[in-house]
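Workshop exercise sheet. Pairs work together: one partner reads the sequence aloud, the other fills in the structure field after running the prediction. Swap roles for the next sheet.
Pair: D.N. / O.F.
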Amino acid sequence: QAKFLDVARRTRDEALFRRSVEVALQARSADQALASARAWRLALPESLDALRFELQILAVQNRGSELAEPMRLLLTRTPEAERSSALAALPRMTQRVADKRGLAEQMDEVLKPYADAPATRTAARVASARLWLQAGDAPRALGLAERAQADDSGAAGPVFLALELLASQPAAEVRRASPDPDERVGIV
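Structure field:
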């Protein structure tokens, strides 16, 4: 792993940085994998893969307090056309963090600019709602899902989230907005 990392640093080759991280992970050395991912990010600051690896390793190591900065960078550097997908992936990427409430609070701060922007508002609110649901705050998750549904009545994310919430939140009733079978379902 050290040889891969040394050569990767000298050549600034993304494939070698990736291999260095992978070798460390295969050796079950999360600290070395994290060091490789961070070296990769420093050498190639525009690499989204380096940030993704760093985030995943931090989450697996249960280092939730260190996730905000790389997540901000990932969202900032993700092309605008792909940002909603990056927001949707956030709850899955961080699901191993033990302090779910602390994570949800921290990520709400990270997501704030995206929750205020028309292009990403719905995706950011759904991501935040999923984090709050993981934290055990179903009423807050429902409120965010309802706001996301109000922002974009055609979006599938709030509807799928409401379906997950049905068991714990009867208010998350989902029904067709009209008798037309082509009409999307929504939260009512």
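Discussion prompt: Residues 100-115 form the longest helix (16 residues). What would you look at next?
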